[in-house]
């Protein structure tokens, strides 16, 4: 059965791997992102449809709606990232104003984006469907406003799962550790830091976007219908649970 899937931030890294997985499966996949060129290139490569959207912007999310299928089987809230890696200068702001701007940027990019997108499409989600949001190991290890946003995402997901459960829709978070082959770090990952991240795992390897795609695919599959309100850690054992 062909399913309708929305993958936010689907042009690069984890989102691209997730979108590719579903497209290969024969599903109808829509990918979004802010930059048109990489988004269209990715969509063409994997056989998806591209729609430019900034998921932190309510007007942009409203403009996205008419371009989506009337019914959605799977929503993957993947758009996000560590906005501190891309922050601008003080722009005449006081230090506290800069702090507030930069803190809000991570909350908007990683928490509001998922909540806003889910709110916009919730009526279109079908029975038997799934919402999967991409969290981070940073939620458990602590990482300033980025980790706080990802921790908030997991908390928000609990309420979402409670709301959607009676409609037979699951809601879960996949929480990656260090994943290579993404644009996440920009030029902020030194060889030493990369080596440390890999040494911190039990498996001694970096995660790959396909590792996350596999976990997302499982949570959106018939095999996972009794799994909801959970965080699935995919981190090579860097952070374990009891
Ligand atoms: N890589 C890791 O080690 C790692 C670890 C833990 C969690 N994560 C999480 O995994 C998710 C995917 O990141 P990634 O590692 O694959 O990095 P990535 O390659 O930078 O992918 C992020 C994607 O999201 C899009 N995006 C960001 N903000 C957006 C917005 N406001 N609206 C629409 N699209 C937006 C970006 O495209 P545009 O810039 O064109 O919008 C980009 O395609 C993120 O939520 C990230 O926090 C990553």
Low-confidence stretches: none
H/E order of the elements?
EHEHEHEHEHHEHHE
What's the mean pLDDT score? 98
> What fraction, in percent, of the residue positions are helical?
40-55%
Radius of gyration over alpha carbons?
Answer: 17 Å
Q: Could you tell me how far the N terminus lies from the C terminus, measured between alpha carbons in angstroms?
A: 37 Å
Number of domains: 1
Q: The CATH topology is what?
A: Rossmann fold
Q: Main beta sheet: strand number and arrangement?
A: 7 strands, parallel
What is the CATH class designation?
Alpha Beta
| Strand-residue proportion | 15-25%
**How many alpha or pi helices?**
8
With strands numbered from the N-terminus, the spatial order across the biggest sheet is 3-2-1-4-5-6-7
Structural class: alpha/beta
Query: What general outline do the C-alpha atoms trace?
Result: globular
Under CATH, the homologous superfamily reads: NAD(P)-binding Rossmann-like Domain
Oligomer: single chain
Lay out the secondary structure:
Layout: E1 4-7, H1 13-24, E2 28-33, H2 36-46, E3 49-52, H3 58-64, E4 72-77, H4 95-121, E5 125-134, H5 138-141, H6 144-164, E6 170-176, H7 191-199, H8 209-219, E7 231-234
Parallel strand pairs: 1-2, 1-4, 2-3, 4-5, 5-6, 6-7
């Amino acid at each position: 059965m062909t399913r309708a899937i929305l993958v936010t931030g689907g042009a690069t890294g984890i989102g691209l791997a997730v979108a590719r997985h579903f497209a290969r499966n024969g599903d109808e996949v829509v990918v979004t992102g802010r930059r048109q060129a990489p988004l269209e290139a990715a969509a063409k490569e994997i056989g998806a449809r591209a729609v430019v959207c900034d998921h932190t912007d309510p007007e942009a999310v409203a403009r996205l709606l008419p371009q989506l299928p009337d019914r959605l089987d799977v929503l993957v809230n993947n758009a996000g990232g560590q906005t501190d890696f891309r922050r601008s200068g003080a722009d005449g702001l006081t230090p506290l104003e800069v702090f507030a701007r930069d803190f809000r940027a991570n909350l908007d990019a990683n928490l509001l984006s998922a909540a806003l997108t889910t709110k916009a499409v919730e009526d279109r989600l079908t029975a038997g469907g799934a919402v999967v949001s991409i969290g981070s190991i940073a939620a458990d290890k602590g990482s300033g406003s980025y980790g706080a946003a990802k921790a908030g995402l997991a908390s928000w997901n609990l309420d979402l799962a409670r709301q959607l459960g009676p409609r037979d829709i699951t809601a879960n978070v996949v929480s990656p550790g260090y994943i290579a082959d993404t644009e996440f770090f920009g030029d902020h990952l030194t060889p030493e830091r990369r080596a440390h991240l890999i040494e911190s795992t039990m498996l001694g390897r970096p995660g790959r976007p396909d590792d996350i795609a596999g976990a997302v695919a499982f949570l959106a599959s018939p095999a996972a219908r009794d799994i909801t309100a959970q965080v699935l850690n995919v981190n090579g054992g860097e952070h374990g649970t009891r």
